[in-house]
Design a protein that fits this description.
Blueprint lengths: L6 H11 L6 H6 L1 H23 L7 H22 L1 H26 L3 H5 L1
Helix pairs in contact: 1-3
Bound molecules: zinc ion.
Zinc ion binds next to helix 1 and helix 3.
């Protein structure tokens, strides 16, 4: 039965089921199918290597990361917000933003903003 297979059937098997599933007698006789089987084998090996390199993480990894990050981030955020410097910084930032906005308005009134932006 193997010998009655034509090249396109063998190629389909090589890519669908893997090079090992291809009829050996055909591969011995047919150079193009042998090449195709070698290419499929190379790809299979490469994909297997990638799978090993990028191993799937455990299912609960995301939960673990979220739990750990949330805990430290929350503590960190609480420290920052509770710190008086934060509010001083926020006030300075707001004042600076207001200052920039005021300067832009003033410049626009003088017709300079467009020249500076462009
Ligand atoms: Zn062939």
């Amino acid at each position: 039965m193997e010998s009655t297979m034509n090249c396109s059937e063998v190629e389909r098997i090589v890519w669908a089921d893997g090079p090992d599933a291809a009829p050996a007698t055909h591969l011995v006789e047919c150079r193009s199918c042998r090449e195709e089987a070698r290419r499929a084998g190379d790809l299979q090996a490469a994909l297997t290597g990638m799978r090993n390199r990028f191993a799937l993480p455990p299912d609960d990894l995301e939960d673990m990361i979220v739990a750990a990050v949330t805990r430290t981030r929350l503590a960190w955020a609480r420290d920052i917000v509770a710190h008086p410097k934060f509010w001083r910084g926020a006030a300075v930032g707001a004042a600076a933003a207001a200052g920039v906005a005021g300067a832009v308005f003033a410049a626009r009134r003088r017709g300079l903003a467009r020249a500076e932006v462009a």
